Amino acid sequence: DEIVLAASPNLSTLIGLSLDDGDSFNAIFGVATRAYPNGEPVPPPPVVRPIVTAPAYGEFDRPTIYALGTDDVWEAVDLIREAGGPTLSDLPVSWVDPKDDLAYAAGVSTSGVILYSQPDNVGDWTYRNLTTEIPGAEAIVGDVQYMTSADGLVSIVGLNGDGELIRYYQDGQRVSGSSQYRWYFVNIDATDLAPFSIDTPAFGGELVAYATSWGGLNVAGLDSSGTIWSVWWSPGQPRWSVTNLSAASGAAPLASSLTVYLTPWNGINLAGIDDTGDLKVTWWVPSFGGN
Fold first, then answer.
1. Contact present, 260 and 269 (Cβ < 8 Å)
2. What pLDDT, on the 0 to 100 scale, is given for residue 177?
3. pTM of the model
């Protein structure tokens, strides 16, 4: 037998919905209310904070976020069903914001960059279109990535329709009268590269974004020749810079699957597959200095 019940948002009331005894499916109705002594208010359920998130495609190929909570339970969040909003053109990215320990996700749609936010208590996820919300913001076309700096500020990065590197970023402050964080926009190519006759590399695939423990921000990718390029900024630098990492390290061309991992000793490792299927890693540690 299967009995289906619905719970109220504050978990104080149950309503019977249906009874399936294996032979027939019957609608039922009943109400059960939790009583508290002395008229005390019903306490809200505890907030389950996520520990880690992972994006994937779920039912009907809709973007889904799998979040492992502090209760050791995995939750699957269908972003379109929970938050609504436009259809995404590709898989989103997701993260846990260290400032409030809540899950977020960002994806690209034809109308702009969509930011999804987990509620801080009972309720549904919500979404914001950062491109239409921020004056002068440009849409990301294709791959979207994120990184969280050492001071806990999140950046969303990608390329615009002209192949220029653009960035959405937080300042850590909340929108007035809201629990949502404030976001800004900058076209790194227009502000930091083009004025100095430096071009954004002609990235030919997915990007990787990573932040170092000393506050550095980095976006790397491959061009059509398999060369690893990095667009980066570090505290004390007046502007973003571009480096051909393959030329600097003598790395052979890569074919695909560029990814990044950082070590506890602050090493930066960019790994990918070459045209023979072998795994190659280009790496740097702080003791190399500027080399």
1. yes
2. 86
3. 0.84
